[in-house]
Design brief:
CATH topology of the domain at 1-50 and 59-102 and 232-268 and 278-332 in chain B: Rossmann fold
Number of strands of chain A: 12
Oligomer: heterodimer
Strand content of chain A: 15-25%
CATH topology of the domain at 1-36 and 52-85 and 241-345 in chain A: Rossmann fold
CATH class of the domain at 1-50 and 59-102 and 232-268 and 278-332 in chain B: Alpha Beta
Shape of chain A: globular
Radius of gyration of chain A: 21 Å
Structural class of chain B: alpha/beta
CATH superfamily of the domain at 1-50 and 59-102 and 232-268 and 278-332 in chain B: P-loop containing nucleotide triphosphate hydrolases
Order of helices and strands of chain A: EEEHEEHEHHHHHEHEHEEHHEE
Number of helices of chain B: 11
Distance between the termini of chain A: 20 Å
CATH class of the domain at 1-36 and 52-85 and 241-345 in chain A: Alpha Beta
Shape of chain B: globular
Structural class of chain A: alpha/beta
CATH architecture of the domain at 1-36 and 52-85 and 241-345 in chain A: 3-Layer(aba) Sandwich
Strand content of chain B: 15-25%
CATH architecture of the domain at 1-50 and 59-102 and 232-268 and 278-332 in chain B: 3-Layer(aba) Sandwich
Helix content of chain A: 25-40%
Number of strands of chain B: 12
Chain lengths: 345, 332
Amino acid sequence: MRRNGDLLDISNLRVVFDTYAGQVKALNGVELWMNHGERLSVVGETGCGKSVTALSIMRLIEEPGRITEGSIRFEGRDLVSLSESELNRIRGKDIAMIFQEPVAALNPVMKVGAQIVENIECQKNAACGDDEVRTSKRAERAGKSASLELMRAMLGHVGLDWQRTENLYPHELSGGMAQRVMIAMALSSRPRLLIADEPTSALDVTIQAQILNLLNTLVRETNTAVLLITHAMGIAAQFSDFIAVMYAGNVVEYSSVESIFSNPLHPYTMGLLKAVPKIGSAEELQSIPGIVPDLVSPPSGCRFHPRCPHRRPECDKEQPRFEPVQGTTEADRHYVACFLYQNDH
Amino acid sequence: MQQGKSDRKDGDTLIHVDHLKKYFEIKKNFYSRPLQVKAVDDCGFAIRKNTVFGVVGESGSGKTTLGRVILRLIEATGGSLTFDGTDLMSLSSQELRLFRRRMQIISQDPYNSLHPRKVVKKLIGEGLQIHFQLTSQEIDERVKQILTRVGLREEHMYRYPHEFSGGQRQRIAIARALVLKPEFIVLDEPTSALDVSVQAIILKMLRDLKRDFALTYMLITHDLAVIDYMADYVAVMYLGQLVEMGKKDDIFLRTAHPYARLLIDSVPPPTPNKQWSGKVLSGEIPSPIHVPSGCRFHPRCPYARELCASKEPELVELQPGHFASCHFPLGA
């Protein structure tokens, strides 16, 4: 099957962090792709590399980390090879990001309205800071009032009353309101891809539901693609079209939501689904034996093999290829990296 | 209020709480008059021996304060509190010490609840020294026993907390509580800081330990799925008060209070084919300093009527053992 990622196509992405304890091999050949307007959830446990993947797309991996191999194609352009100033034209404009701690992500000494306006102005000048476009005073004023209008409209879209909100400082906002402000800011530039890194993990369930519903409505209206990073299977199940399961720096399974829940193939995915408690289910919880490996000296071959109940002799020798499952349809796009499903073994 | 009355005669009651209040005073600045934060406002319930009593609510609902007041880790402002027939409120701190062994707490964050400069043996053995005055050898023995019981090994005895993962630290915290052979343990968000696969291990272990040691738990969490997996009885808290309480099935299947219903409905189910209504509770939990008039939930309640804004509903028994404080309970 031809893999089609006309918006984003990550191939063989490897990221390492050089630490005193040794080199942490955080991403070990990540494969991930999505089309325009699709909603993809990346799920996995702490340390599996889901946030590093998101930061790599924004090219926000900082020292001591670096991308050693692979490509991140965004609408055909490889983000890995772009210069900082080229990246600044993409960051926030074509690809926007929202974070787990919205209050921490906002500037504490600037009113939220002004922060959104600043962001809009930056995007308008394409490369903020670098080469500010000089315009006449009049044009500038006109531009400024347009930005103000847009800011107020955006606050309205995210369910906030601009008159009450625009003059508040971030510390005066509740977590839910702050995340709404972040969403307003992120979507004000009409990005084609929105990366949401655990956007609701710090919020209560009722607020979480509000924010996710809001996000869902807005991205549907504007046909924005969403890469949602989460550890909660419930959120992934309800808010995405596709799911990628990560384990120890690899995407081990990728598929449509329906297919991954009804027919999980990778032993890690199976274990993960059985470990999630569900309301109204009498099923006993099952845990995955063993612990997450240390990525300074990760297990050889398939990184899941020491914990795998279906382990075969070849599993510790080489890394299984990430391949489409036999008979999967274009709609399901079910891929898995596991020797159990590779016929030549 | 009449809550708990039907349980009072019950000989199996371990904890009995009536009209329990905890008000905190805060001052905006030095000169201002103190404001009262009613963190726990008139709560009453009974916990039976060998059951799991789940307390669920959003952040700021007062569930953690409730757990701490029950252990007298913070002093209540008013109300009564008995533990196995003894009035805990009237005990002096010396008398209370005898009871401390029998009631333990396991808190949310295993990174902050373990002393970073004490080895595991010291962390677990300290309580033994205080309560049982054992010799070093006896302590050694007991620590070893309990470590194997919670899935750790003997060699872990001389390590420091930073050498362990989150799940292992929570095991140490559990061992520390269990080694004193308590009867009652408050579990305050015991797995919120852990990944789901580790959470599954810890929850299963807590269940097994409850069976093997005949324990009674008060499980405080915001995670309804965890409550459903663990609890026998459930109390739903909102702004310092219990709005609904009953057997687990009463709460999940015969929900009476609109807040409890909306709380349950706002959890996205982890299966895609089960269509999630996505019914969303509007607004946010109000500040406990300025509690809304009448029913505290009325500004957010989709079913609120005039009466709700003026008259505070009482917690009444709808069915035997099933309480709710709502003027217009669902399904009535």
